[in-house]
Design brief:
single chain, about 270 residues, Glutaredoxin, 5-stranded mixed sheet, 4-stranded antiparallel sheet, 11 strands, elongated
Length: about 270
Amino acid sequence: MKKLFVIFSAVIVFGMTALGVIAADSVKDAEYVEPKADAVEVPADVITYLEEVLAPIAAQVPISKISLSGMPGVYEVVLGNEQLIYINEQGSHFVVGDLYSLEGGKLANLSEKAREEAEQAFASVRFEKMQVLKQEDLIVFPAEGETKAVVTVFTDIDCGYCRKLHSEIEGYNKAGIEVRYAAFPRAGVGSNSYNKYVNTWCASDKLVAMTDAKKLKPVPAAECENPVAQQYQLGQEIGVKGTPAIVTGDGTLIPGYLPPDRLVERLGLNSDV
């Protein structure tokens, strides 16, 4: 059991996600159906037992919900950091990822509803954590004219899709979106990407330096007191696993690149982009 706890904790701390892969040819004719609602409640003694099994990590990652999974003897556990796991009632094995049903030859993702609930619940937590960010610690590209929305983009200087996003910064700004960059050097503190971000943040003109860095132009080395490490840590705490990661004003995290028109649509803005 001790080994299980060690492995489980590593999964939670580093945000690893197990992926279930299904051969396309085997399900191409399958019909997607909504999963059936569970008619039986989880016995109280089972919940108590599973909480005890998960106790070593519950202090850092609280358990939001335990429910029947749709697979006999396996329970769905929603954690406070948006992680979704499935654990057997003996507490001896668990998996991370989505659970699918193939009952009656029809494919159904049994995890979608729980994942949506977990994401909505964590958005409020993310919103609160984001309040530690001060505008003066971010590299801000303001909206043109009326500011219709503000997004914080966790970015990496060496990220290709981050460069793609920045190459269209005028489009976001013209649509009324203020883009605030926060640091997320994926290789970690002290890496080459980290140092590039420090150089950018410490430059006399941060906006010019950011644009140059995104265009692969050298930015002169510079040192100053900076928030790069703290922003990287915050990104990990709020669930950033890759870049760019767009956080909206209500704490919703949008992973990956979206062009200006798609972001406008996602934010529910009216624009001529």
